[in-house]
# Entry
Amino acid sequence: MKTETHKVAIVTGASGGIGSAVAERLGRDGFTVVVNYVGNAASAKAVAANIEAAGGRAVVAEADISDAAAARRLFDSAEAAFGGVDVLVNNAGIMSLATIADSDDALFDRQIAINLKGTFNTLREAARRLRNGGRIINLSSSVVGLLQPTYGVYAGTKAAVEAMTSVLAKELRGRNITVNAIAPGPTATKLFLEGKPQQVIDHLTKLAPLERLGQPEDIASTIAFLAGPDGAWVNGQVLRANGGII
# Structure
């Protein structure tokens, strides 16, 4: 049952996958949702339309968070439209896999730009501008614990996100703002499934003791817990939502 919160949540990378599931769940929970996207306006508008069809309120906002000025404008637009921001969900990210020996500069630089610098850009804005009592929820990955071959650069970016999560939680002392990270395991999104042979997908499905892939809604539910009143005492933590894979 939806509860009116009159709070505003920015969800980055919200035009598909986990991001769209998070945006729609927060909309159902009563948040006004800023659906951030890069490039795919039609998908972002469809997510916003779904939120509004369910009785919520949403707007779309294009911003490449790897650009500090664009991240600043994202917060500017939310503040101009709604008066402030209460929740930031740092979902935007990319994954390119290769051994460290075979990782070229472009693979490294792009993941650093979006996964690490992009998260830093929005964290900096949130640290300065989030309303007291707000919530920051970063997206890490359980590969930080699994540490499989070919995930070196990607896992490195997410390990850095976890470090910034813990540091920022301490830096925001006195403002009643929590800062946490969610670390999903294998989750059935286009990003995860694309290019993987069926036998690889079948193998990954069986790795967790619960013997299934995560669904975007599983991650959205965990984020909704941290964004809502029941998550108020969780701070500076990395929550591995992965069915027990690690």
